[in-house]
């Protein structure tokens, strides 16, 4: 534990893990009942179709897919039943031919040629069919050239046997090579976590590949299933919303060699914009995760699914690191795949954080508004200039010289500069300037007087010798040597 705290810091607290290394969530204050999930943790969808009526015939129109989708016990039962019925039917056909020709009652001597040699009863007819169907050919039973109906039945048996073999063996092969089994070696974390990452509140979960063979073009998607009611009053029990896990940046395209942490940034566009730690106790939602990719060994498309309910989302947690550098390779410790630890996370939603930040932000300074007004005045004068250039020549002469808009621009800029400078003056000067009848010279003199007061106070605080040199608050040029006075006079002229 001490080594772990040195690695992660003292402010982090590791969640207790089970024997398998899976992180357990902190105990809830009010445990809920078992939620009905839309998608199980193993990816199976809890949906049953009922009251199909006459639509059940559609399953027979796609019989091959129907057989592939059946469970293994039903597939094996249909496989054995189909071959058993086909074999018994064809053996009965050979027995009927032998019975109709009288091959079963007559003694087989050298002068008699039966339809099938050495077929005396039903077992012998069944053995002949098996030898023909399996192309064993022991050489004891065979078709003679005196039986045209046997030749026709043999051709029918060969065609029918090939169709049954292709259908059932193909069905079993597709069933065994289905990529669903490949999805079982793709792992998802048992819990999802919400914490800060790169300064943003982020929903995270982990995915890993247990095999050395890669998933080509692996892509991950997330759906949020949540009930809601539209403004028109329509109730949607399982409304599906998309959770962005990097579609805009390409982060949803995974290079799934080692376990990856999939992130969904919670912002104003996220469905979790209003979600906080307090509201998670009352919310009901389910996050469905879909991972798709091409199996490298077979080239077939594989899909793995899982889901997280609101009870399986841990607020203020982060996943434990599982990759370490060894001598010449990177080692993945899957015993810590599900483990999480607590990190400091604000309990507020992103919406509440933005509102608090907006309330605590300072007001806009007047200089910005003055600059905006100045820009607006310049734009207006530009428009006046354009209008003046479009006037007739007589009106242009009446308005004055061609530089009339430029004069307005100088006057407006001077006025705006004065207004801008007035905003920076002290309150006393602003009141004096606002009194009617005060000219700019009076304002300038009062300003100069006020600016000179601190100078006089600072000179009064000097030692007596320096006050004599300064001449009672004036410049010290009178007591300077002639050379320095000449240099100063030359510099100021």
From TrEMBL:
It catalyses: K(+)(in) = K(+)(out). Residues 434-493 are annotated as: Disordered. Residues 39-179 form the Potassium channel inwardly rectifying transmembrane domain. The chain crosses the membrane at residues 76-97, 151-174. GO terms for biological process: potassium ion import across plasma membrane; regulation of monoatomic ion transmembrane transport. Residues 445-459 have a biased composition (Polar residues). It is a multi-pass membrane protein. This is G protein-activated inward rectifier potassium channel 1. It comes from Tichodroma muraria. The gene is Kcnj3_0.
């Amino acid at each position: 534990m001490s080594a772990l705290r040195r690695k992660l810091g003292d402010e982090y607290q590791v969640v207790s893990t089970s024997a398998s290394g899976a992180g357990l969530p902190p105990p809830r204050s009010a445990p809920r009942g078992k939620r009905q999930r839309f998608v199980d943790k193993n990816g199976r969808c809890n949906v049953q179709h009922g009251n199909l009526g006459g639509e059940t015939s559609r399953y027979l129109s796609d019989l091959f897919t129907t057989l592939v989708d059946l469970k293994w016990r039903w597939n094996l039962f249909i496989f054995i039943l189909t071959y058993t019925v086909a074999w018994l039917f064809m053996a009965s056909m050979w027995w009927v031919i032998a019975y109709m020709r009288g091959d079963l009652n007559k003694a087989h001597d050298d002068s008699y040629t039966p339809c099938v040699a050495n077929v005396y009863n039903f077992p012998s007819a069944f053995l002949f069919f098996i030898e023909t169907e399996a192309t064993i050919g022991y050489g004891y039973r065979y078709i003679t050239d005196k039986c045209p109906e046997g030749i026709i039945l043999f051709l029918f048996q060969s065609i029918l046997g090939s169709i049954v073999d292709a259908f059932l063996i193909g069905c079993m092969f597709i069933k065994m090579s289905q990529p669903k089994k490949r999805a079982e070696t793709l792992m998802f974390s048992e819990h999802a976590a919400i914490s800060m990452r790169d300064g943003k509140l982020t929903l995270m979960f982990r995915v890993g590949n247990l095999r050395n063979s890669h998933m080509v073009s692996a892509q991950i998607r997330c759906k949020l299933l949540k009930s809601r009611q539209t403004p028109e009053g329509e109730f949607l029990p399982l409304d599906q919303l998309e959770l962005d896990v990097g579609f805009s940046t390409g982060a949803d395209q995974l290079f799934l060699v080692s376990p990856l942490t999939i992130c969904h940034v919670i912002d104003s566009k996220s469905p979790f914009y209003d979600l906080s730690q307090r509201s998670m106790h009352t919310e009901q939602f389910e996050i469905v995760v879909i991972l798709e990719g091409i199996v490298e060994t077979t080239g077939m498309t594989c899909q793995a699914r899982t889901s997280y309910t609101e009870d399986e989302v841990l607020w203020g947690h982060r996943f434990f690191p599982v990759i370490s550098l060894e001598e010449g390779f990177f080692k993945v410790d899957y015993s810590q795949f599900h483990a999480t630890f607590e990190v400091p996370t604000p309990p507020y939603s992103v919406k509440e954080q933005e509102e608090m930040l907006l309330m605590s932000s300072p007001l806009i300074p007047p200089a910005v508004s003055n600059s905006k007004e100045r820009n607006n005045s310049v734009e207006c004068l530009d428009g006046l200039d354009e209008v003046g250039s479009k006037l007739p020549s007589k009106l242009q002469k009446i308005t004055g010289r061609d530089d009339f808009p430029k004069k307005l621009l100088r006057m407006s800029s001077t006025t705006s500069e004065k207004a801008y400078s007035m905003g920076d003056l002290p309150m006393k000067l602003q009141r004096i300037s606002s009194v009617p009848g005060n000219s700019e010279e009076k304002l300038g003199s009062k300003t100069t007087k006020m600016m000179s007061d601190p100078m006089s106070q600072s000179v009064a605080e000097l030692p007596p010798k320096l006050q004599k040199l300064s001449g009672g608050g004036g410049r010290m040029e009178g007591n300077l040597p002639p050379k320095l006075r000449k240099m100063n006079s030359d510099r100021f002229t």
